[in-house]
Each structure stands twice: as C-alpha cells, then as structure tokens.
Amino acid sequence: MSDPDATIVTAYGRLDRAALTRAQSSYDTTALLSAVEELDRIVGRARGQDGLRDILLRLHGMAHAVINGAGLSVSTSQGSLPEIALDATAEILQTISTLQRWVELIEPLESLQPRD
C-alpha cells in the first residue's frame, strides 16, 4: 500500500511530495521562459532570409538538378551543393543541441509524477 503522505494534490494534479520539495529548492522556472525566447529566435532565424528554410529549399533545388537531372532552379553562384549541405547540417545540429538542452531542462519536472 502506498504512503498517502508521499503525494500532494495541487491545482495541476497529484505530485510526488519529495520531488516537489527538491524542485522548490532547486528548479529555476525562469529557464523555461528563456527556452520560449530561444524558440522564438530559432523559428525567426529558420524562417528568415537565408535561414534553415531557405537553405533546405536551395539544397533541394541543387540536389534535384544534380541527382534527378531537373533544370537549374538555384543560382550556381550560391555555393556548391556540399557547402550548402554543410550549412544545413550545421544549422540542424545547432538546433538539436538546443532541443537537447530543453529536454534536460524539462525532465526534472517529470520526476514530480507520483510513484504509486
């Protein structure tokens, strides 16, 4: 039988009391707001001129021409296909790194789940 004192009922559900106590003494909720601001920057950068969206479209046009024999749809002065692929990969890896940091930020909140 589970210990009824091991959990606490809050407006956002039943939580593990010990985990909540730890979170209250160490968890920085403002980091979540920073993640929101960071997300806004990532989305803006991705959708902006020469952002990830544009890079992927340019990469598609180049790959489509080279691999499928399609007509040229991207200026040949915008870099080589491997250079554009490298740019896309770098931007994606940077985003993945940021997302992994956010996972690490959010995971402690999962520990609030009661164990019963």
Total of DSSP H or I helical runs spanning 4+ residues: 4
Strand order of the largest sheet: 1-2
Q: In percent, how much strand structure appears in the residues?
A: 5-15%
Q: Which stretches are low in confidence, meaning pLDDT under 50 for 5 or more residues running?
A: none
Element string (H = helix, E = strand) = EEHHHH
Report the mean per-residue pLDDT as an integer: 94
Number of strands: 2
Q: Main beta sheet: strand number and arrangement?
A: 2 strands, antiparallel
Global geometry: elongated
Structural Rg: 23 Å
Helix content: 55-70%
Supply the helix-strand structural class.
mainly alpha
Distance between the termini: 9 Å
Describe this structure in words.
- This is Transposase.
- Keywords: Plasmid.
- InterPro entries: TnpC_reg-like (IPR049837).
- It is built from four helices and two strands; from the N terminus they run E-E-H-H-H-H.
- With 116 residues, the chain is mostly helical.
- The protein has a domain of 80 residues.
- It has a two-stranded antiparallel sheet with strand order 1-2.
- The protein is elongated, with a radius of gyration of 23 Å.
